[in-house]
Each structure stands twice: as C-alpha cells, then as structure tokens.
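Quick one, T. Sequence first:
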Amino acid sequence: MNAKRVLVVVATASLTFLASAPQAASTPARRVLEVDRIVAVVNNEVITRFDLAEQIKLAADRLRRQGTPLPPSDVLQKQVLERMISQKAQLQFAKDSGIRIDDAVLDKTVARIAQENKLTLPALRAALEKDGVSYTRFLDELRKEITIARLREREVDSKIVVTDAEIDAFLQTRQDVLGRSEEYNLGHILVRVPEQASPEQIQARQARAEEALTQLKQGADFGQVAATYSDAPEGLKGGLLGWREASRLPGLFLDAVKGMRVGDVSAVLRSPNGFHILKLIDQRGAAPVIVQQTHVRHILVRTNEIISESEARSRLLGLRERIVNGESFAELARLQSQDASASKGGDLGWISPGDTVPDFERVMNQLKVNEISQPVKTEFGWHLIQVLGRRDEDMSKERLRLSARQALRERKSDEAYQEWLRQLRDKAYVEYRSEER
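Structure tokens:
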C-alpha cells in the first residue's frame, strides 16, 4: 500500500470520528475502525500492516498445505517481514537499474505455468481463486518473481566464471559423484551472519542455530523450526530444498549428507554466509546417464524495425513451401538464415535436452525424422526446424565436463547470490515502526 492509500484511509477514519463526535455523550460507543499503518520503511518505500498481514496469510496457507505446523505468530510475522524487506530492496534496485517486465513476458509466463499444470488459462484462474488467491495478486507476485530472477541473472549469474582448471580439479576429486548421479532430498535451515559481523554477533547467530538444532533433536517438526529460524529464501516453505544431484551440492553439504541416513539431521555447519542445518529427507541412487539426442537444423529469421513478426512468418512459410517442393533446405539456410549455423546449412548438430530454448525444443521433440515444422517463434525470432535423426547417447567425456561445469556454476551462483543479497540488505536503509501508537 502506498502513502496515498494510507492518507485516504486516515482521512476516512477522521471523517467518521468527526461525524460521530457531537453525539458521543448521548449515543452508545461505536466500533473503532482500525486504520492501516506503516510497519517498516525500506529506503524510500513503506511496508504497511495490511501488506504484511496479506503475506503472512499466504505464508501460513503454504505451510498448512505442506502439513507443516505454524511457528508462533510473532515469529512468523518477523520472518515474513524480513523477506518482504529483502524483496522490496531487490525490486527497488531492479527498478533503479532499468529492469522492466512487460505484459507480453508476463502473459507468456502465465501460459507456460498453465501448460505445465495441464490447465487452460480460465482453469488456472479458477484454481487460484479456489485457493483464495486473486488473479490480480497472482500476476503481481509473478511479475516480482520474474523481475528478481532477471536481476539475479544480471547482477550475479552473468558474472560467474568457471575455468577449465576448476573443471579438471572438480572431475579429479568428484568423479565418483558425477558417475553415480545420486540425488538427495534435503531440508535446509540457514542462520545468516551479517557482513563484517563482530565476534559477539557471530556468537549470537551460532547460538540461534544451536537452539534450532536442540529443538530438532527434541523432536520438533523440521518445517516449523525452519519457518521459525531460517533466513534462507525457502525458510517459509518449510526449509525444503527439494531434490538435488550430488554434483550440485556444495562440498560442505555433500560431506555432511554422505554420513547421514534418511531422517537424520546434521550438526551445525559453518560457511561464509552463516550457520546451516541439513535434514536428509530422502535419497535415491544412480540412474543411467543416457540422454536422447536430436540431430537438427533450422532456418532463422529475426524480427527488427524493418522485418515485422508477420513478415518473418510469411517469409518462412514461403521457404517451407519451396523445400517441400524439392529445393535444398541446406542451400536455403545458407542464403536466408540469420544465424551462425547458416554457413553449415543451418545444421546445429546433435543436441541434448536443455541445450536450446523451451519453445524450440518442444516443437523439435514433436517432429518426426525429416519432417519440417511450421514457423516457430522463440525469443530469437522465427524458425523453420527439421529433425535429421535421433539417438540415445551415453554421457561422453564432453558431456561429463558439461555436467561438471553446470554443477560448479550452480554452486557458485547460489553462494554468490546469498552474499550479494546480504550486501544489498546491509546497504538498505531499514526502519522498523513499532506497534505502539
């Protein structure tokens, strides 16, 4: 809620009071209308009690759906408020640095969410409303999530560098991990330590982590303890990290879970970000490292100020008709495709799942060998796609190195994002407004 809304509420309440004042002596006391108020200031924006109550309800509903007992109300309120402060600081930074999510991106994301849940858009809307979530609120929260994802990509992920030397060292020490592809379903509690914390602050944070561990050893529900103590983003989701391949886990975590059985809780672990507690919820063994690869080629026409969407599509329809009538796909790709693969006749070689963007991959997977697609739109432009062959391929040394690179990149990204988030939070001006009036 913005300042204007607060003023309107205050003005309305004031008018109500003034209207009733002359009769105060002769009429019964009327119910006092509670006025919305500011509970925190983050830089130049506010968080109101109304906003906080709404987010507390969403967090509580999510925990109930998971079957996780709720923490005490004052603890839940504090945890939710801290996450709202962190989110608002990120959104402010994104706005100041020019990140905008337009309606077209939002609509496309909503369509993908509906498709992944096997729902039509009206059915998705009905499902949300059945759960007590307004469609407007859903869109607002989704826009914020996309904005923060874009911000993380630009400020953190794009700056992650993984060297060949790091991959060699990783493969040498973790060959067994990559070969087995074991996966762990983990719960996680993080008690974050501020940057440049004093010894007293570090000691206090460690004591908080030890207090959480003591409750767990006494049989407390892990999700409730996570919602009470954890500063990690997944804290209010019961601390659930979900399934992670062994190769994606930080060495600190992997070393801890190796000696654990399902249901065990780790000791308090120390990292540069703070103190961690892990719970091994489940684990599963190695699956065959076999991937289906597709040999594919394409012709790409990009849109710009000169070539419109409809013109790009029409151009590809014309090229498709020429190919169907006997002209060479490869030759037309060399002449017409606006892609680096044009010199190879549009040949992209053998690609594995995840190597290309989802819209391209989805259509590619639906094509029969030698079949030519209709024009397909992706973020890069419009494509004609032809599948030349398919094969099941065991993970080669090249794929093993790619897996190692991805594991290292994800690990570095997670650690860097937590550190970046901590610095952003420490730099923000935050003022808490007490409930006293």
